[in-house]
Each structure stands twice: as C-alpha cells, then as structure tokens.
Amino acid sequence: MTGPDDAHQRPAGVSDATVEALGRLSEALEAVEVARGHLYAFHRLSGTADLTLGDAVAKLRHAGHTDLADRIARELVGRNVLAGRWTFQVVEEYDDGYYADFRELEQLARDELVEGRRHLYEAEMKEDRRTPGEDGHAAKPADI
Questions:
Q1: Residues annotated as region Disordered (predicted)?
Q2: How confident is the model at residue 144 (pLDDT cuts 50, 70, 90)?
Q3: Phi/psi of residue 84, each to 5°?
C-alpha cells in the first residue's frame, strides 16, 4: 500500500483550510520548541559561566589579586540573572506557563478538528512531492 499511514491521513470531511490552519499551528509550536531549546541552552551556558567564574576567582586569589577576586566573588558569583531569578527559575516559569499552555491548546485543536492526528499538512505535502516507486521516496518505512 502506498500513501501515508492511517495516523497521517485526514479524517473524512476535514477541509483543506483546516489542515492548512493546523499546519501553521504546528509550525508555530515547532518555533516554540526551538525557542525552548535556546532557553535551556541559555540556562546551561549561564550555569557554566558561573562555575567557570568561580574558578577564575580562585585563580585570581592564587595569583595574589585578592581584592579583585573578592569583589568579583561578591558581585557576580551566584548572582541572579534576572530580578530574583536564576536561570532554572526562568526555565520553570516558561515551561509551566507559556510552553505548557501552547502545547495544551495545540493538542486541543488537533483533538477537536482531526481526531488528534499530527502533521497532516506535512504528510500531504510529502505525498504531493515524492515520486512513487523511486528509490528514497517511500511513503512510509513499511514500504521499503
């Protein structure tokens, strides 16, 4: 059998406009996922910077620059990156708020409109763009 699997076929009666709208909603969620990845990268890099800063302070002390080391330790080591927040708190607030709401509403839209099916727009685009029977153009893994 060729064509997308059942999970990637639009339910009967679903319009092109609905599939296109859900495709854009999915695209927006993908952008949010990338933004979330960057936020986690920011979290990791900020933590690494603070730990590396602590090492630099120790080296400054060892080199005899205790006044400068003390000031850097006091003013920067362990400092909040935003008012009252370390990056883990920023990540948690994003995850529990905007990100969770976005995912919930995207899922709700798919559940209400296409029986929860994902990537219908992309699956139909794949069908339109692939060359049936051509090597590397199988509709799904089972067709290989």
A1: 123-144
A2: low
A3: 75, 5
Residue percentage of the chain with pLDDT more than 70: 99
Q: What's at 69, amino acid-wise?
A: A
Q: Which of 107, 123, 128, 113 is nearest to 26 (CA)?
A: 107
pLDDT value, residue 40: 98
Name the amino acid, one letter, at 51: L
**Dihedral (Cα; 94, 99, 101, 105), 10-degree rounding:** 170
The answer, as to whether pTM is greater than 0.85, is yes
Rounded Cα distance between 116 and 24, Å, is 15
DSSP state of 142: G
Q: Is 41 exposed, middle or buried (0-12, 13-18, 19+ CB in 10 A)?
A: exposed
Q: What are phi and psi of 10, to 5 degrees?
A: -70, 140
Alpha-helical segments (H) within the chain:
16-62, 66-75, 87-94, 100-114, 120-129
Copy the structure tokens of residue 60.
């400054």
Rounded CA-CA distance 25/106 in Å is 7
For residue 97, give the DSSP letter: I
